[in-house]
Amino acid sequence: MSARAVILRVAALLLLVVFVTAPQLFAFAFAPLAANNAPAIYNQGSLLALTLSHLRIVFLATCASTALAVALGIFVTRPKGREFLPLSRSLVNIGQTFPPIAVLAIAVPLVGFGEKPTFIALFLYGLLPIFENTLAGLTEVSPQTLEAARGMGMNARQRLWQVELPLALPVILAGIRLSVIISLGTATIGSTVAAKGLGEVIIAGLQSNNIAFILQGGLVVALLAVLIHDGLGLTERMAARKLGRFVDETA
Amino acid sequence: MPTLRPTLHLDRLGSVIAGLIGLALFASPFVTYRANRIVSGEGRLLVDALPPAGALITVVVVLGVAFCAALARKPLARLAAASLGLCVIFPAIGISAGFVTPAGNTFARVSPAIGFWLLALAFALLAADALTRLRLGPWGRLGALSVAAGALALLLVSGAWNDLSLMKEYANRAETFWREARQHLWLALGSMLAACLVGLPLGLASHRVPALRAAILNGLGIVQTIPSIALFGILIAPLGFLAANVPLAAALGIRGIGAAPAFIALFLYSLLPVVANTMAGLSQVPADVIEAARGMGLSRRQRLVQIELPLALPVILAGIRIVLVQNLGLATIAALIGGGGFGTFVFQGIGQTAIDLVLLGAIPTVALSFAAAIILDAIIDLTRRGAHDRD
């Protein structure tokens, strides 16, 4: 990574941290947008607390989806679960035609308002990309590699943990990244069903017709998403590079 | 080797589906009865939700499908069983609504309950698995889609579902429904067309000029990362400023809040898949093919139109498929900023905790995305086949 890229990222992160901890410092920039003496900076709660609870729900939901999606992906690629493989491929395709908001909206009448429907929507929708990529990663491991592992005397369990999963890891991580980004967006919409999150700022702005609120909510969510996307991309490249070295050493 | 297979083979997936059917049939309510549209309701088991003869027929058919799922191996047989099951429970839910609603009561609402949804899910899984195993060609898939759409249209037009709460919600706002439907399609398709008009030349340019490539892809990648509602929010500020200060913009209907920011946001989201796939499609055209075309005396323009674009078409269409499915889903969020579309019903429904209103917005959205995905996949297969024929 070039020095300029590092500086840019650090600056963006600093800007985000300063903005959510001390938004009043930026009041001058948003004041022209707030009409009729409306407050320029969100005043119905702390931006920091909203950011943290937004991140918390995304993190918890992603952990849960990762655990289930990877387990399912492993199951349908084992001999025992092979019968489910064609169907699970179609299900992933069909599932992606569901908009996240539909999942969120249908969860509300079932479990009530608040964090619960948001968590369910994030969890269910987050399964898809991770499951899809786990399948892709595991099925793309070449038969020769598996044959070699078998020849070295590895049993099925060892092959999975020491060969298949490490080789599939970068692809699985890419799925997790996609899932996190979708979840960040869905969690923002979750504020319409009373989940604590950054969407609250945007919704408050829409309801009181205060463009300053809408813009600052939008900017914080956008900056957060771009930084997280970038950071996870970095981990992925590190995993891939590690894999490259690993393969080189054994070659 | 079929001879080695035991005569009675229990299919794993089929057993799961049969279990699901059993659970739906005996342990979950088939419909929910509510005294009015927003109070919480009470469930009715299938046997209590239909006239005795109807209940008997439904139970027998559904159990038959469960046995087929567990025992039948041929995909065609399983598909037939699943279709039969769907053909029974879909009209049954309509009949049940009429049966459960007390005569003359216009406030009572009957909605499908968990048992119905589980049965529909089980049959749909069975059908999806059978269709996947049949490996239908593009025409076969289009045929299956039109049969399903036709059956659905028949049910809707015949009035078999008119007693269901969902259809009552529709009847109360039929006019709004079609207006929002047009708005939804306009948002999704219009922004897709705009993205094609801009994205194809942009993709071509970045294919020809490598210096542009990284800048364009990185910029569009960042836009893709921004959650939809945040992007809508960011666009509202400049558009509101434009509307307040440029009379022409206001006259064109551009306002800070409304369809304009939604349209622009969907357009921006659509650019990356179109540009990236145009580039990928063009770069995979073999160099020797282009060389041969040059040798035949084709001009640069002719090479592009007659050779490169047709060969890149399947990949470009794959990008358009991503865009269309994504836009149809994202257009629901437009309602949050006053942009209309099916999301209007979803957000109204959330506000009133009226699940049927939510479904009135969500079901058409999902159906449209689903149909769009199948149709475009089929078209992609057909163009791919066409490209191979030319080889």
TrEMBL record, chain A:
Main localization, broad class: membrane
TM ranges: 56-76, 97-114, 120-142, 163-191, 211-232
This protein's UniProt keywords: Membrane, Transmembrane, Transmembrane helix, Transport
Subcellular location: Cell membrane
InterPro entries recorded: ABC_transp_perm/SBD (IPR051204), MetI-like (IPR000515), MetI-like_sf (IPR035906)
Residues annotated as domain ABC transmembrane type-1: 51-232
Domain of life, per lineage: Bacteria
Membrane topology, record value: Multi-pass membrane protein
Pfam families the UniProt entry points to: BPD_transp_1
PANTHER family, sorted: GLYCINE BETAINE UPTAKE SYSTEM PERMEASE PROTEIN YEHW, GLYCINE BETAINE/L-PROLINE TRANSPORT SYSTEM PERMEASE PROTEIN PROW
UniProt record similarity statement: Belongs to the binding-protein-dependent transport system permease family.
Protein name listed in UniProt: ABC transporter permease
Phylogenetic lineage: Bacteria, Pseudomonadati, Pseudomonadota, Alphaproteobacteria, Hyphomicrobiales
TrEMBL record, chain B:
One Pfam family named in its UniProt record: BPD_transp_1
Protein topology in the membrane: Multi-pass membrane protein
Keyword NAD: no
Coiled coil: none
Transmembrane segments: 12-33, 53-72, 79-100, 106-127, 139-161, 185-204, 216-242, 248-272, 304-324, 330-350, 357-380
Protein name: ABC transporter permease
Domain of life: Bacteria
Keywords: Membrane, Transmembrane, Transmembrane helix, Transport
Family: Belongs to the binding-protein-dependent transport system permease family.
Annotated compartments: Cell membrane
Domain ABC transmembrane type-1: 181-376
